[in-house]
Amino acid sequence: MTPMGKQDKIFEEGNLSGLPFTFNQEVTEVFEDMINRSVPGYRTSLRLITLFTKHYYQSDTTCYDIGCSLGASSLSMLQAKKDVKIIAIDNSEAMIEECKNRFQNLPQSQSIQFLQQDVMEAELDNASIIVLNYLIQFLDLEQRERLFDKIFSALLPGGILILSEKIHYKNSFESNRIFRTHHKFKSINGYSDLEISGKRDSLEGVLITEPEEDHFSRGARAGFKSSTKILSNLNFRTFIFCK
Ligand SMILES: C[S@@+](CC[C@H](N)C(=O)[O-])C[C@H]1O[C@@H](n2cnc3c(N)ncnc32)[C@H](O)[C@@H]1O
What we know:
It is built from eight helices and seven strands, in the order ααβαβαββαβαααββ. The protein is of the alpha/beta class.
């Protein structure tokens, strides 16, 4: 896949529009740069998707990449096994169109189907791997609950949900400390204080974090027999939930 390589300068002048953050054309064009410079452990989360797909993929089943953006998680699954079949879902037209463009010349493009759809409307079934890489933080709490139930029903026995999320701590002192460290992480990656605060303002009420304990409880409520934290990088986590 050819990366677009455009640098994220969306909040160079702060949140000028005052509008909430959306995954529109402007964000799509800089998304790779944005996620790489903003999410500690992002690349590792993708490598873990490959590793866990190798181990847990069951032949003649479907893998889902929900909230696929530009398909990085789908690509990670494709790298794991030759015969994987993937359905990649995103409700952003700009994202799904660019994602399709990027995959069209890949030899494995026949193995992947792209759907522009809200995950709450999507039909999921016969799945051995479902990936939610930094998606549910954009859903409200009631939707998260329903989505976990839907995912649990769609997974076959032995199937897994791979979930990556930004989290906060229950303890506000710890949360503020990690929040400041994350701010430094973004500064080191070239974002100015104005850019960081501009993006934070635009994400207010759009990206809602939870403590990691809440993700474990939701997994248990949905019926998953085990849940494990497989990556912890500042205030970002990856978990697997096994059916
Ligand atoms: C942070 S990005 C995900 C990154 C991607 N999974 C990766 O590994 O590179 C979140 C994505 O979720 C999509 N999204 C947000 N709400 C959604 C919904 N209700 N249904 C489907 N996609 C959604 C956004 O359009 C965006 O592309």
